[in-house]
Amino acid sequence: MIKKLVELQEKAKTEIMAVKTMHNLNEVKSLYLGKKSPLQEVLTQMKDLTVEEKKEMGIAINAFKQAVEEFVLVKRDLLQKDLINEKLEKEAIDISLPGVKFKDANYHPLELVTREIEEIFIGMGYNIAVGPEVELDLYNFEMLNLPAGHPAREMQDSFYINPTTLLRTHTSPVQARTMLENKNKPIQIICPGKVYRRDDDDATHSHQFMQVEGLVLGSNVSMADLKGTLEYLLKKMFGGDRVIRFRPSYFPFTEPSVEVDVSCFKCNGKGCALCKQNGWIEILGAGMVHPNVLKMAGYDPEVFQGFAFGIGIERVAMLKYGIDDIRNFYTNDIRFLRQF
Fold first, then answer.
1. Is the pTM of this model over 0.70?
2. Which ranges of 141-290 would DSSP assign to H, the alpha helix?
3. Where do the domains of the chain lie?
4. How far apart are CA 152 and CA 251, in angstroms?
5. Residue stretches of the chain with pLDDT short of 70
6. Is the CATH code 3.40.50.1970 the one for domain 109-337?
């Protein structure tokens, strides 16, 4: 019987190595190891053997099974390699053809400025807050001390979707939402993002533009903190020798409110075409958070004070990179974008 297994093993090896497809390989394997294989005949005869003979036959049968399995694995690897080689031949690539030259991508100038501002404020311990661009009138105006009929609403010609919903005109709604989520807790955030206004009459205005607004609330926040923060920001953006100045202004959501100028980084305050010969460049608006805004968000103005500011990303980018037309940011002209 052992001799018969040896002969069967050699026959199995010959037939396995001769197959041409995976399907045939599986059929041959079943032929020698399946329920109707010659091996089953050997197993049925084992009942007539002695204990010692059964032990020897058991070893021989296991060796036979292992050998057939190994033959199958070897042949399977060979067939798979043949399939791969055949596929490579059919899908041959002509390596003599010139390849496609990939060009390095670069960030959009608005993205560059946004990231730079974010890195500066993250370094000061601020968090980045975001919110929806399609906003409720409640958050865009009313919670910022701009109730219905307020004349200051005319300063922001808005895109309304319905009577209560519009495209946000500033990122201030993110501040309102953040205050509601953090009642009576300190806040230190900036809110970058796109905003929309019907204002695109000239080279310095666009119906879509980007802002970064900031909000700081605490129990001991003063105008001096605002000035120090903005001075640090503008020195980082435009050079360490910059000087800033505050001019009184009006914003419904801050009181007192200021316009912030930075000394011209081109002429260093002497006067040039960039600063219109006065040595200063208007850069952003800011102020101390209005008590009404604090009350509507659930903060006690007697306990919490804070400051807020808003800066236009396009304006900073135009000053930083010497761009004279805001529309260049949105025309997708690759010649323009490759400069940054």
1. no
2. 172-181, 223-238
3. 2-90, 109-337
4. 8
5. 1-3, 39, 41-48, 92, 152, 154-156, 199-205
6. no
